[in-house]
Amino acid sequence: MQQIIYFFIKNKNFLLFAFLFLIALILTIQSHSYHNSKVISSTNFFSGGIYSARSNVTSYFDLRKENNLLIEENTRLREQLATLKSNIPNPKFEGDILPVFNFTGARVINNNYSKIKNQLTLDKGLKDSLEVDMGVITSKGLVGIINKVSDNYARVQSILNTTSQINAKLKKSNHIGFLTWNTKDPNIVQLIEIPKLAPIAVGDTIVTSGNSSIFPKGILIGTVKDFTVGATDSFTVDVQLFNDMTSLNHVYVIKNLNLLEIENLEKTDDAE
């Protein structure tokens, strides 16, 4: 305590000068707008630098998250591409048509999932070469089929729609049925008319069958949650969707580049 008192006594002149200088500086800043603005500007500069640094750090971690999502999505797409390549059948005769699919990215700007006939709206349309009857998927699985298009937008009939029927199959056994929805749960759809002789177990993967020109073979849909024997002596399968249909953002629209040629060929076969 004595040392502290001695310090103040010894340096009283300097401390008095510093105190008076500080008071003078404060009065000068308060009475002159120029000096005041400079001090505020300097303060803002440093605080802005701190906020900017914090923002950059936040952006960095957000970027890492986005990159991880993109890596995950690209991995799924590569797996789907590999599935498509491995499932292309050998031509039965010269002139067989192997479907070629093109993918266009789009964003969901409206999504219904609580009605019985749910629709989605995409932010792309005719100007982006979108057409009716094109399939829509995400990196995780099936979404629906385009049923109406304007210049800049497209409407999609969701798989959560009582009028939707899409060919799907058990991946491990290739038994084919129709994908429908009973309106009870937006996370679960039904695969009907699976033959009773088909080997099936909870957890089995359901994919598109490829028996149409809309979806390639092997697009992911979901897994078997439960199954029962229906009125037609076939299995009705509850399918837990891979997609969260209540939270859709980025999607891919599938265009079959050989669609017209395939349709013309099939018309020729029907006429014979």
Describe the structure.
This protein has 272 residues and is α+β, with helices and mostly antiparallel strands. The protein has a domain at 99-258: Rod shape-determining protein MreC, domain 1 (Thrombin, subunit H). The protein has helices spanning 2-10, 12-31, 33-87, 259-271, and strands at 101-111, 117-122, 135-137, 142-149, 154-161, 166-170, 176-180, 188-195, 205-208, 220-229, 234-241, 250-256. A hairpin with a 4-residue loop joins strand 10 and strand 11 (234-241). The model is unreliable at 43-49 and 91-98 (pLDDT under 50).
Helix and strand topology:
Blueprint lengths: L1 H9 L1 H20 L1 H55 L13 E11 L5 E6 L12 E3 L4 E8 L4 E8 L4 E5 L5 E5 L7 E8 L9 E4 L11 E10 L4 E8 L8 E7 L2 H13 L1
Antiparallel strand pairs: 1-2, 1-12, 2-5, 3-4, 3-12, 4-5, 6-7, 6-9, 7-8, 8-11, 9-10, 10-11
Helix pairs in contact: 2-3
Quick summary of this structure?
The chain is of the alpha+beta class and 272 residues long. The chain has helices at residues 2-10, 12-31, 33-87, 259-271; strands at 101-111, 117-122, 135-137, 142-149, 154-161, 166-170, 176-180, 188-195, 205-208, 220-229, 234-241, 250-256.
